[in-house]
User: What shape does this take?
Amino acid sequence: MPAAPDPVATANAQGAANKETAFWNAMMGNMNQETPYGKISYTNNSNGVYDPNKPPQFTSKVELSPEQQQLLDRSQANDLAVQQLGTDQISRIANAVSTPYSYNGLPAAPQYSDINALSQHGEEALMSRLNPQFQRDEEALRSRLINQGIGQGSEAYNTEMDRFNQAKNDARMQAVLGGQQYGGAEAQQMLGLRNQGIQEYNAQRNAPLNEYTALTAGQQIQNPNFSAPQAGNAQAGDIQGATQNAYDNAMARYNAKAAGQNSLTSSLFGLGGAVLGGFAGNPSVGAWLGQKIDGAK
Assistant: This one.
């Protein structure tokens, strides 16, 4: 009967094959690459020699082309200079934000009372020009009516005076509307001056911070792009499976041989029984066979 395979030895052999396969996969996968913009190279601690007790460790090194390296050096120098300007700007930022944010000192926002006062002021300004004219026109109307023989208190007199007063009231209403327009325009101007002051104040306060942000927001140089290596992927041999298959085949051959031997033995025993039965019917032959057996002993 063939000896059964040692599972520990088989597992150890499979593990050793797996480790060696992994080593060569790593050696094939970490390949050096070169582009017009630079190259990447790999070094390992094994110098390409397989050691089952020392897994390989790789170090990658990226090198730019001379032109790209020059651009990188200049860019870094410029970045350092700009960063220094940004550092100097921090003190200005501190001064700008050292005082609390406030709109004190800016033009005041117009209030409702301010608009009413401005409207009243506009109305009074218009009426100051109309009232003297009204007085002159009223005196002229009175004189004309008297000269025409229309006395005060008469119906014709009152009709003419009512017409004059109506025109006078219409003029005053126009003055009121004109005053409101004047007050609204003045309020809009006040509000515009305040908004302009706020914008100027914010711009002055935020200017150092905006300048710092602009100085320190430069773009960085990028490394050249390398494609992923397309290395072969070797697979370790199935030592455990092969060992088991070999053992199964050996057992199959052993079982076949044992079955053949058992069949032959059974046939011989059957033949021997028949022969002995024939000898038992012949005493002389039986005596002769007994002598031969005693002599063989």
Observations:
- Strands lie at 33-35, 38-44, 58-64.
- The helical segments are 7-29, 66-96, 112-147, 155-215, 239-280, 283-296.
- The first helix runs from residue 7 to 29.
- DSSP finds six helices and three strands in the chain.
